[in-house]
Amino acid sequence: MKSLRLMLRGAIEPAVGVCFVLLWVMSEVGRFDPRNVAAAVLPFVMIGIAIALSRFAPLLALAALGVLLLAQLVVPLLRFSEMSFPAYLGFGIVAAVLGASANHRERQVSLPLVGAYGIVIALFFTIPALSPTLERSVAVSWGASDSEPWKNIALMFLVFVGVSVACWYIGFGRRARLERNRSEAERLAIAADLSAAESELRFASEHDRIAQDVHDIMAHSLSVIVAQADGARYLGDQRPEGTNESLAAIARSARESLVEVRMLIDSLGTESEGHSHPTLDGLGALLERMRSAGLTVSHTVFGDAGVLTAGQQLAVYRIVQESLTNALKHAGASAVATVVFDWRGPGLALTISSRGEKTQPAEQSPQRGLRGMRERARLAGGWLAAGFDDDEPGRYVVTGFVPRADAIIGNASPATTEAGEGAS
Protein backbone atom coordinates (compact mmCIF):
# COMPACT_ATOMS: atom_id res chain seq x y z
CA MET A 1 0.00 0.00 0.00
CA LYS A 2 2.79 2.42 0.87
CA SER A 3 4.71 1.66 -2.35
CA LEU A 4 1.53 2.15 -4.38
CA ARG A 5 0.94 5.49 -2.70
CA LEU A 6 4.51 6.55 -3.50
CA MET A 7 4.08 5.50 -7.14
CA LEU A 8 0.86 7.46 -7.46
CA ARG A 9 2.39 10.53 -5.88
CA GLY A 10 5.38 10.30 -8.20
CA ALA A 11 3.09 10.14 -11.23
CA ILE A 12 1.30 13.41 -10.47
CA GLU A 13 3.77 15.80 -12.11
CA PRO A 14 4.24 13.74 -15.32
CA ALA A 15 0.47 13.43 -15.65
CA VAL A 16 0.03 17.19 -15.14
CA GLY A 17 2.72 17.84 -17.75
CA VAL A 18 1.03 15.60 -20.33
CA CYS A 19 -2.38 17.14 -19.63
CA PHE A 20 -0.89 20.64 -19.90
CA VAL A 21 0.49 19.94 -23.39
CA LEU A 22 -2.66 18.20 -24.64
CA LEU A 23 -5.04 20.89 -23.41
CA TRP A 24 -3.04 23.76 -24.85
CA VAL A 25 -2.47 22.03 -28.19
CA MET A 26 -6.17 21.24 -28.48
CA SER A 27 -7.14 24.82 -27.58
CA GLU A 28 -4.70 26.30 -30.12
CA VAL A 29 -5.07 23.77 -32.91
CA GLY A 30 -7.23 26.07 -35.05
CA ARG A 31 -4.86 29.01 -34.68
CA PHE A 32 -1.61 27.28 -35.59
CA ASP A 33 0.12 28.41 -38.76
CA PRO A 34 0.11 25.26 -40.93
CA ARG A 35 3.60 26.08 -42.09
CA ASN A 36 5.04 26.32 -38.52
CA VAL A 37 3.07 23.78 -36.48
CA ALA A 38 6.21 22.33 -34.88
CA ALA A 39 7.44 25.77 -33.81
CA ALA A 40 4.03 26.58 -32.38
CA VAL A 41 3.76 23.30 -30.40
CA LEU A 42 7.36 23.22 -29.13
CA PRO A 43 6.94 25.87 -26.34
CA PHE A 44 4.00 23.94 -24.85
CA VAL A 45 6.00 20.70 -25.01
CA MET A 46 8.99 22.33 -23.28
CA ILE A 47 6.81 23.59 -20.43
CA GLY A 48 5.12 20.18 -20.15
CA ILE A 49 8.54 18.50 -19.93
CA ALA A 50 9.62 20.96 -17.21
CA ILE A 51 6.46 20.20 -15.22
CA ALA A 52 7.04 16.45 -15.57
CA LEU A 53 10.66 16.76 -14.39
CA SER A 54 10.03 19.30 -11.63
CA ARG A 55 9.95 16.74 -8.77
CA PHE A 56 12.52 14.20 -9.97
CA ALA A 57 15.05 16.50 -11.65
CA PRO A 58 14.50 20.10 -10.48
CA LEU A 59 17.65 21.47 -12.10
CA LEU A 60 16.74 19.89 -15.47
CA ALA A 61 13.27 21.41 -15.20
CA LEU A 62 14.79 24.85 -14.59
CA ALA A 63 17.18 24.31 -17.49
CA ALA A 64 14.28 23.41 -19.81
CA LEU A 65 12.44 26.60 -18.92
CA GLY A 66 15.61 28.66 -19.33
CA VAL A 67 16.26 27.14 -22.77
CA LEU A 68 12.67 27.90 -23.80
CA LEU A 69 12.94 31.57 -22.76
CA LEU A 70 16.31 31.92 -24.49
CA ALA A 71 14.90 30.37 -27.67
CA GLN A 72 11.89 32.71 -27.56
CA LEU A 73 14.20 35.69 -27.25
CA VAL A 74 16.02 34.60 -30.40
CA VAL A 75 13.21 33.07 -32.50
CA PRO A 76 10.00 35.14 -32.74
CA LEU A 77 8.02 32.13 -34.05
CA LEU A 78 8.40 30.45 -30.66
CA ARG A 79 6.78 33.32 -28.76
CA PHE A 80 3.27 33.02 -27.40
CA SER A 81 0.46 35.02 -28.92
CA GLU A 82 -2.13 37.06 -27.03
CA MET A 83 -4.39 33.98 -26.73
CA SER A 84 -1.67 31.48 -25.72
CA PHE A 85 0.25 33.82 -23.40
CA PRO A 86 -1.39 32.33 -20.23
CA ALA A 87 0.65 29.19 -20.94
CA TYR A 88 3.37 30.89 -18.91
CA LEU A 89 1.34 29.81 -15.86
CA GLY A 90 3.14 26.49 -16.35
CA PHE A 91 6.21 28.28 -14.98
CA GLY A 92 4.22 28.89 -11.78
CA ILE A 93 3.41 25.16 -11.51
CA VAL A 94 7.10 24.30 -11.83
CA ALA A 95 8.01 26.97 -9.27
CA ALA A 96 5.46 25.59 -6.76
CA VAL A 97 6.72 22.01 -7.17
CA LEU A 98 10.34 23.15 -6.78
CA GLY A 99 9.52 25.02 -3.60
CA ALA A 100 7.74 21.95 -2.23
CA SER A 101 10.09 19.11 -3.21
CA ALA A 102 13.60 20.40 -4.03
CA ASN A 103 16.43 19.98 -1.54
CA HIS A 104 18.10 22.90 0.19
CA ARG A 105 20.75 23.51 -2.47
CA GLU A 106 18.22 23.22 -5.31
CA ARG A 107 15.90 25.64 -3.56
CA GLN A 108 18.73 28.15 -3.21
CA VAL A 109 19.26 27.97 -6.98
CA SER A 110 15.63 27.80 -8.02
CA LEU A 111 14.28 30.86 -6.19
CA PRO A 112 16.50 33.48 -7.92
CA LEU A 113 16.03 31.74 -11.27
CA VAL A 114 12.25 31.77 -10.84
CA GLY A 115 12.44 35.53 -10.17
CA ALA A 116 14.66 36.02 -13.25
CA TYR A 117 12.28 34.01 -15.41
CA GLY A 118 9.45 36.25 -14.19
CA ILE A 119 11.41 39.30 -15.40
CA VAL A 120 11.93 37.74 -18.86
CA ILE A 121 8.24 36.84 -19.13
CA ALA A 122 7.38 40.43 -18.19
CA LEU A 123 9.61 41.59 -21.05
CA PHE A 124 7.74 39.38 -23.50
CA PHE A 125 4.47 40.69 -22.13
CA THR A 126 5.26 44.41 -22.27
CA ILE A 127 8.01 45.15 -24.84
CA PRO A 128 6.58 45.54 -28.36
CA ALA A 129 9.83 44.38 -29.99
CA LEU A 130 9.54 41.05 -28.10
CA SER A 131 5.96 40.35 -29.13
CA PRO A 132 5.11 37.83 -31.88
CA THR A 133 4.17 40.72 -34.24
CA LEU A 134 7.22 42.81 -33.27
CA GLU A 135 4.91 45.88 -33.27
CA ARG A 136 2.46 45.83 -30.39
CA SER A 137 3.00 44.32 -26.94
CA VAL A 138 0.81 41.52 -25.70
CA ALA A 139 -0.32 43.63 -22.72
CA VAL A 140 -3.36 45.60 -23.94
CA SER A 141 -1.53 46.32 -27.21
CA TRP A 142 0.88 48.89 -25.87
CA GLY A 143 2.94 50.47 -28.62
CA ALA A 144 6.04 52.59 -28.89
CA SER A 145 3.91 55.74 -29.15
CA ASP A 146 2.19 55.17 -25.80
CA SER A 147 2.90 57.80 -23.16
CA GLU A 148 5.09 56.79 -20.23
CA PRO A 149 5.21 53.06 -21.13
CA TRP A 150 7.97 52.37 -18.59
CA LYS A 151 5.59 52.89 -15.67
CA ASN A 152 3.35 50.19 -17.08
CA ILE A 153 6.36 48.00 -17.82
CA ALA A 154 7.63 48.38 -14.22
CA LEU A 155 4.19 47.45 -12.92
CA MET A 156 4.12 44.30 -15.07
CA PHE A 157 7.62 43.40 -13.87
CA LEU A 158 6.44 43.55 -10.27
CA VAL A 159 3.34 41.50 -11.08
CA PHE A 160 5.15 38.72 -12.94
CA VAL A 161 8.07 38.50 -10.55
CA GLY A 162 5.67 38.58 -7.60
CA VAL A 163 3.50 35.81 -9.08
CA SER A 164 6.54 33.62 -9.85
CA VAL A 165 8.04 34.03 -6.39
CA ALA A 166 4.62 33.62 -4.75
CA CYS A 167 4.14 30.27 -6.51
CA TRP A 168 7.54 29.14 -5.24
CA TYR A 169 6.69 30.16 -1.68
CA ILE A 170 3.29 28.44 -1.89
CA GLY A 171 5.11 25.19 -2.59
CA PHE A 172 7.67 25.91 0.09
CA GLY A 173 4.92 26.65 2.61
CA ARG A 174 3.26 23.34 1.85
CA ARG A 175 6.60 21.59 2.31
CA ALA A 176 7.16 23.37 5.63
CA ARG A 177 3.69 22.36 6.83
CA LEU A 178 4.27 18.71 5.88
CA GLU A 179 7.66 18.72 7.60
CA ARG A 180 6.13 20.28 10.69
CA ASN A 181 3.43 17.59 10.76
CA ARG A 182 6.08 14.91 10.23
CA SER A 183 8.22 16.36 13.01
CA GLU A 184 5.22 16.50 15.32
CA ALA A 185 4.40 12.88 14.54
CA GLU A 186 8.02 11.89 15.22
CA ARG A 187 7.99 13.91 18.43
CA LEU A 188 4.85 12.12 19.59
CA ALA A 189 6.36 8.76 18.66
CA ILE A 190 9.55 9.60 20.56
CA ALA A 191 7.50 10.79 23.53
CA ALA A 192 5.60 7.48 23.48
CA ASP A 193 8.88 5.55 23.31
CA LEU A 194 10.31 7.59 26.18
CA SER A 195 7.17 6.97 28.23
CA ALA A 196 7.43 3.25 27.57
CA ALA A 197 11.14 3.30 28.43
CA GLU A 198 10.40 5.23 31.61
CA SER A 199 7.75 2.68 32.59
CA GLU A 200 10.19 -0.15 31.93
CA LEU A 201 12.86 1.65 33.96
CA ARG A 202 10.45 2.15 36.87
CA PHE A 203 9.48 -1.49 36.65
CA ALA A 204 13.14 -2.57 36.59
CA SER A 205 13.98 -0.27 39.50
CA GLU A 206 11.02 -1.58 41.51
CA HIS A 207 12.04 -5.13 40.64
CA ASP A 208 15.58 -4.49 41.89
CA ARG A 209 14.27 -2.78 45.04
CA ILE A 210 12.00 -5.72 45.84
CA ALA A 211 14.77 -8.23 45.14
CA GLN A 212 17.17 -6.29 47.36
CA ASP A 213 14.66 -5.97 50.20
CA VAL A 214 13.73 -9.65 50.02
CA HIS A 215 17.43 -10.52 50.02
CA ASP A 216 18.14 -8.27 53.01
CA ILE A 217 15.19 -9.57 55.01
CA MET A 218 15.28 -13.26 54.18
CA ALA A 219 19.06 -13.73 54.04
CA HIS A 220 19.43 -12.30 57.53
CA SER A 221 16.50 -14.16 59.04
CA LEU A 222 17.23 -17.49 57.41
CA SER A 223 20.89 -17.25 58.48
CA VAL A 224 19.78 -16.74 62.07
CA ILE A 225 17.28 -19.59 61.81
CA VAL A 226 19.85 -21.96 60.30
CA ALA A 227 22.42 -21.05 62.95
CA GLN A 228 19.89 -21.57 65.76
CA ALA A 229 18.67 -24.83 64.29
CA ASP A 230 22.22 -26.16 63.95
CA GLY A 231 22.94 -25.11 67.52
CA ALA A 232 19.78 -26.76 68.82
CA ARG A 233 20.62 -29.98 66.98
CA TYR A 234 24.16 -29.91 68.32
CA LEU A 235 23.06 -29.20 71.90
CA GLY A 236 19.96 -31.38 71.83
CA ASP A 237 21.60 -34.34 73.52
CA GLN A 238 24.07 -32.47 75.73
CA ARG A 239 21.93 -29.50 76.88
CA PRO A 240 18.24 -30.18 76.28
CA GLU A 241 17.32 -27.00 78.13
CA GLY A 242 19.13 -24.94 75.42
CA THR A 243 16.79 -26.27 72.76
CA ASN A 244 13.90 -24.17 73.99
CA GLU A 245 15.98 -21.00 73.76
CA SER A 246 17.05 -21.84 70.21
CA LEU A 247 13.49 -22.62 69.17
CA ALA A 248 12.30 -19.36 70.71
CA ALA A 249 14.98 -17.45 68.79
CA ILE A 250 13.98 -19.25 65.59
CA ALA A 251 10.32 -18.40 66.13
CA ARG A 252 11.11 -14.76 66.93
CA SER A 253 13.35 -14.34 63.86
CA ALA A 254 10.81 -16.04 61.58
CA ARG A 255 7.99 -13.88 62.98
CA GLU A 256 9.96 -10.66 62.45
CA SER A 257 10.82 -11.70 58.90
CA LEU A 258 7.19 -12.51 58.21
CA VAL A 259 6.15 -9.05 59.42
CA GLU A 260 8.74 -7.34 57.21
CA VAL A 261 7.78 -9.44 54.18
CA ARG A 262 4.10 -8.60 54.75
CA MET A 263 4.98 -4.89 54.90
CA LEU A 264 6.93 -5.26 51.68
CA ILE A 265 4.02 -7.01 49.95
CA ASP A 266 1.58 -4.36 51.19
CA SER A 267 3.82 -1.65 49.78
CA LEU A 268 3.54 -3.11 46.27
CA GLY A 269 -0.09 -2.08 46.05
CA THR A 270 0.48 1.54 47.10
CA GLU A 271 3.76 3.44 47.18
CA SER A 272 7.32 2.25 47.54
CA GLU A 273 7.67 4.21 50.76
CA GLY A 274 5.31 1.81 52.48
CA HIS A 275 7.84 -1.01 52.87
CA SER A 276 9.82 -1.77 56.01
CA HIS A 277 11.96 1.16 57.18
CA PRO A 278 14.29 0.10 59.96
CA THR A 279 16.28 2.92 61.55
CA LEU A 280 19.37 3.11 63.71
CA ASP A 281 17.12 2.79 66.76
CA GLY A 282 16.57 -0.84 65.77
CA LEU A 283 20.28 -1.58 65.54
CA GLY A 284 20.44 -2.88 69.09
CA ALA A 285 17.73 -5.46 68.44
CA LEU A 286 19.56 -6.54 65.29
CA LEU A 287 22.78 -7.10 67.22
CA GLU A 288 20.93 -9.10 69.86
CA ARG A 289 19.43 -11.36 67.22
CA MET A 290 22.85 -11.96 65.75
CA ARG A 291 24.27 -12.74 69.21
CA SER A 292 21.44 -15.18 69.90
CA ALA A 293 22.30 -16.91 66.62
CA GLY A 294 25.85 -17.55 67.83
CA LEU A 295 27.74 -14.58 66.42
CA THR A 296 29.91 -12.70 68.86
CA VAL A 297 29.30 -9.03 68.08
CA SER A 298 30.68 -5.89 69.69
CA HIS A 299 29.53 -2.38 68.91
CA THR A 300 31.69 0.70 69.50
CA VAL A 301 30.65 4.31 68.88
CA PHE A 302 33.00 7.30 68.73
CA GLY A 303 31.67 10.83 68.94
CA ASP A 304 28.14 12.15 69.20
CA ALA A 305 25.59 10.78 66.77
CA GLY A 306 24.75 13.14 63.93
CA VAL A 307 21.56 13.63 61.94
CA LEU A 308 20.81 11.15 59.14
CA THR A 309 17.74 11.07 56.98
CA ALA A 310 15.38 8.09 57.13
CA GLY A 311 16.82 6.82 53.87
CA GLN A 312 20.39 7.11 55.17
CA GLN A 313 19.48 5.31 58.39
CA LEU A 314 17.89 2.52 56.37
CA ALA A 315 21.05 2.27 54.26
CA VAL A 316 23.30 2.02 57.36
CA TYR A 317 20.97 -0.54 58.98
CA ARG A 318 20.91 -2.74 55.87
CA ILE A 319 24.70 -2.51 55.46
CA VAL A 320 25.28 -3.65 59.04
CA GLN A 321 22.62 -6.35 58.66
CA GLU A 322 24.13 -7.71 55.45
CA SER A 323 27.68 -7.61 56.81
CA LEU A 324 26.78 -9.48 59.99
CA THR A 325 24.66 -11.98 58.07
CA ASN A 326 27.61 -12.73 55.80
CA ALA A 327 29.86 -13.12 58.84
CA LEU A 328 27.39 -15.57 60.41
CA LYS A 329 27.13 -17.60 57.21
CA HIS A 330 30.73 -17.69 56.10
CA ALA A 331 32.97 -17.21 59.15
CA GLY A 332 32.04 -20.42 60.95
CA ALA A 333 30.88 -21.28 64.46
CA SER A 334 33.51 -19.14 66.21
CA ALA A 335 32.71 -16.06 64.16
CA VAL A 336 33.52 -12.76 65.81
CA ALA A 337 32.37 -9.43 64.41
CA THR A 338 33.03 -5.85 65.36
CA VAL A 339 30.84 -2.88 64.41
CA VAL A 340 32.44 0.55 64.78
CA PHE A 341 30.61 3.86 64.25
CA ASP A 342 32.72 7.00 64.12
CA TRP A 343 30.78 10.28 64.10
CA ARG A 344 33.85 12.51 64.57
CA GLY A 345 33.72 13.97 61.10
CA PRO A 346 31.28 15.29 58.49
CA GLY A 347 29.32 12.06 58.67
CA LEU A 348 29.22 8.47 59.86
CA ALA A 349 32.29 6.36 59.13
CA LEU A 350 31.40 2.73 59.74
CA THR A 351 33.58 -0.36 59.87
CA ILE A 352 32.29 -3.93 60.17
CA SER A 353 34.99 -6.55 60.49
CA SER A 354 34.64 -10.27 61.05
CA ARG A 355 36.82 -13.34 61.33
CA GLY A 356 36.32 -17.00 62.07
CA GLU A 357 37.41 -20.52 61.42
CA LYS A 358 36.40 -20.60 57.75
CA THR A 359 37.78 -18.28 55.13
CA GLN A 360 35.78 -17.54 52.00
CA PRO A 361 37.61 -16.57 48.79
CA ALA A 362 36.71 -13.14 47.47
CA GLU A 363 35.35 -14.50 44.19
CA GLN A 364 32.76 -16.53 46.13
CA SER A 365 31.52 -13.61 48.18
CA PRO A 366 27.79 -12.86 47.92
CA GLN A 367 27.67 -10.62 44.86
CA ARG A 368 24.07 -9.41 45.25
CA GLY A 369 24.64 -8.51 48.88
CA LEU A 370 27.87 -6.65 48.14
CA ARG A 371 26.35 -4.80 45.18
CA GLY A 372 23.33 -3.95 47.31
CA MET A 373 25.50 -2.50 50.09
CA ARG A 374 27.50 -0.39 47.66
CA GLU A 375 24.36 0.87 45.96
CA ARG A 376 22.72 1.77 49.26
CA ALA A 377 25.82 3.67 50.35
CA ARG A 378 25.96 5.50 47.02
CA LEU A 379 22.29 6.49 47.17
CA ALA A 380 22.82 7.70 50.72
CA GLY A 381 25.48 10.08 49.39
CA GLY A 382 28.50 8.08 50.54
CA TRP A 383 30.61 5.11 49.55
CA LEU A 384 31.44 1.56 50.60
CA ALA A 385 34.34 -0.86 50.13
CA ALA A 386 34.73 -4.48 51.19
CA GLY A 387 37.47 -7.08 51.08
CA PHE A 388 39.84 -9.27 53.04
CA ASP A 389 42.44 -7.69 55.29
CA ASP A 390 45.94 -8.14 53.86
CA ASP A 391 47.55 -7.81 57.30
CA GLU A 392 45.30 -10.34 59.04
CA PRO A 393 44.35 -13.39 56.93
CA GLY A 394 40.77 -14.53 57.38
CA ARG A 395 39.57 -11.11 58.52
CA TYR A 396 36.93 -9.57 56.27
CA VAL A 397 36.39 -5.80 56.52
CA VAL A 398 33.55 -3.62 55.28
CA THR A 399 34.19 0.11 55.44
CA GLY A 400 31.84 2.89 54.40
CA PHE A 401 30.91 6.50 54.88
CA VAL A 402 27.55 8.29 54.92
CA PRO A 403 27.53 12.09 55.21
CA ARG A 404 25.34 13.76 57.79
CA ALA A 405 22.11 15.27 56.47
CA ASP A 406 22.96 18.71 57.91
CA ALA A 407 26.39 18.57 56.25
CA ILE A 408 24.77 17.84 52.90
CA ILE A 409 22.39 20.79 53.25
CA GLY A 410 25.22 23.05 54.39
CA ASN A 411 27.25 22.14 51.32
CA ALA A 412 24.26 22.87 49.06
CA SER A 413 24.41 19.53 47.31
CA PRO A 414 20.86 18.81 46.20
CA ALA A 415 21.91 15.85 44.10
CA THR A 416 23.42 14.15 47.15
CA THR A 417 20.36 14.92 49.27
CA GLU A 418 18.07 13.38 46.67
CA ALA A 419 20.36 10.36 46.49
CA GLY A 420 20.16 9.97 50.24
CA GLU A 421 16.38 10.06 50.18
CA GLY A 422 16.37 7.68 47.23
CA ALA A 423 18.14 5.00 49.25
CA SER A 424 14.81 4.17 50.78
UniProtKB/TrEMBL annotation:
It catalyses: ATP + protein L-histidine = ADP + protein N-phospho-L-histidine. One of its GO terms (cellular component) is membrane. The keyword Phosphoprotein applies. Keywords: ATP-binding, Kinase, Nucleotide-binding, Phosphoprotein, Transferase, Two-component regulatory system. InterPro entries: HATPase_C_sf, Sensor_HK_TwoCompSys, Sig_transdc_His_kin_sub3_dim/P. It is an enzyme of class 2 (transferase). Its EC number is 2.7.13.3. GO terms for molecular function: ATP binding; phosphorelay sensor kinase activity; protein dimerization activity. Residues 206-269 form the Signal transduction histidine kinase subgroup 3 dimerisation and phosphoacceptor domain. This is histidine kinase. It comes from Cryobacterium luteum.
